[in-house]
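FW: tagging you since you asked about this chain on Friday. Here's the raw sequence from the shared folder, copied in full. Didn't touch anything.
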Amino acid sequence: MFNYGFMELLAHGGFTLFVLIICSVLALKVIIEKWITLKVLETKNLEELSLKVKEAIREKNFKMAQHVCKIGSVKRMGFNITAPLANVFLYMMNNLNYKKEELMDLSFSKMDQELVRLEKGVSILGTLGNIAPFIGLFGTVLGIIRSFEGLSINEASSYLTVMGGIAEALIATAAGILVAVPSVIFYNYFMKRIKLSIPSMETEIKEVLYLLKKEAA
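HL: got it, structure written out here
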């Protein structure tokens, strides 16, 4: 068995292991960031925001409705995250001059833009999940090549020495898989959460638009 510390592993893994460490740090950053920001897509948060906006509109207090949207954020772990639905509501209130059908289409387009904003960064996880194993495999191939080069230069090298070099080279493959698996898992999880939020957002947009056109008439 090879009992290496972190620095020894880094030394044996070479350049590719260093690249994979950077990839792992990037993946962790995206996972934490998206875990926090997607809090705004929880059904209770969407409904709470929509309820406050509807109440203000029923009272014909459009300034209050806009204020609710402007402060419509979710606080988590010290971060204030603007709800995409709040931005859509604000857009609707600022464009009441359009006909109902036109504003509905424009509002859904705005919603799509907000969802794209939320998806930004998630695609990085998908990319890392795809390329990390190949980066690791590349590092392993380089390590095996170096092992056999050493054997050809020094014929006295033993079989165990060569196998030891190959085992060390496999560290890169293991690291690549270690980066890829959580990246793919969280990529699928985040994309699923975003897609599942769409029906709820569409329903709230339709209800708020109906109230806006009714009370602003």
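FW: Residues 6-216 form one domain.
HL: agreed, and Strands lie at 73-76, 79-82.
FW: great, closing this out.
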